[in-house]
Amino acid sequence: MPELPDVEGFRKVLESCAKGRIIQRVDVRDTGVLHGTSTRRLRDALEGRRFTEPERHGKWLLARTGGPTLMLHFGMTGRLVCGHPDDAVEAHDRVLFTVSRDRQLRYRDQRKLRGLWLADDESEVARLLEHQGPDAMAVNREEFEAALAARRGSVKTALTDQSVLAGLGNLLADEILWRARLRPTSRASDLTEADCRRLYTHMRRTLRSAVTAGCVPPRDSWLTGHRDDPVPTCPRCGNSLRRSRMAGRGTVWCPQCQ
């Protein structure tokens, strides 16, 4: 599932492929990914507009045009790719944005769990993001601690709740908690000041590394690199990792050092 680092990578794709370029044609190949808009309205709003500096909030990508804003969410299998208008269209290419004779931006998604929204103005952007917490890359420590203190459930659930903190998914949450030596079942409201400070520090470090990699990398020194092993062991202490489910999510942690 795309998490914050993946969406930041998609933002860079949009920036390098289309920033400053005029949207010459919008080709909707599957209306099932459009939300609250139609093919005609999307074309009328965007064709002739110029993509400006894209933004990201959590797992949302904001494709600015100086007028309407195209809002993209990638669900579990979505991605953004840059290609040539003459490239063969793949089965899961849902919406194509031609921005020059040799560049085309494609929203590609197999399962179509989320998709595209069109915000006419900033109030509409704010409405679509109103249930999102602060972005995990931008939140300061005081805001982070306040958000966790207000939660009664587990810290794992709090970290993956987009209304608490926007951008973290299952892989990142498990990785950050493992680095901070905190059990995912710990109550968020029971964390000490030192726990919160350590958790925030490791969240920032993990995000920086993952954004550089463009994903949550399965490195040998990371929990992520071992969670899917047949017999997973902790890369820090060598003990067996434990698998469980929390709020329907597969959770991996080390009972020895967390």
What does the model show?
This protein is an alpha+beta fold. It contains seven helices and eleven strands. α6 crosses α7. The longest helix is centred in the C-terminal third of the chain and has 21 residues, at 193-213. The radius of gyration is 20 Å and the shape is elongated.
Strand arrangement, major sheet: 2-9-5-4-3
Largest sheet data: 5 strands, mixed
Q: Please, what is the average pLDDT?
A: 96
Give the radius of gyration.
Answer: 20 Å
Shape: elongated
Distance between the termini: 25 Å
Beta-strand content bin = 15-25%
Helix amount, in percent? 25-40%
Protein traits:
258 residues; alpha+beta; five-stranded mixed β-sheet; four-stranded antiparallel β-sheet; 7 helices; 29% helix
Describe what is shown at a glance.
The protein has seven helices and eleven strands. The protein has 258 residues and is α+β, with helices and mostly antiparallel strands.
Q: How are the elements arranged and paired?
A:
Layout (H helix, E strand, L loop, with lengths): L3 H15 L6 E4 L5 E2 L3 H8 L8 E3 L2 E4 L5 E5 L4 E6 L9 E8 L2 E7 L5 E5 L2 H7 L12 H9 L5 H6 L9 H10 L13 H21 L28 E5 L2 E5 L5
Parallel strand pairs: 2-9
Antiparallel strand pairs: 1-7, 3-4, 4-5, 5-9, 6-8, 7-8, 10-11
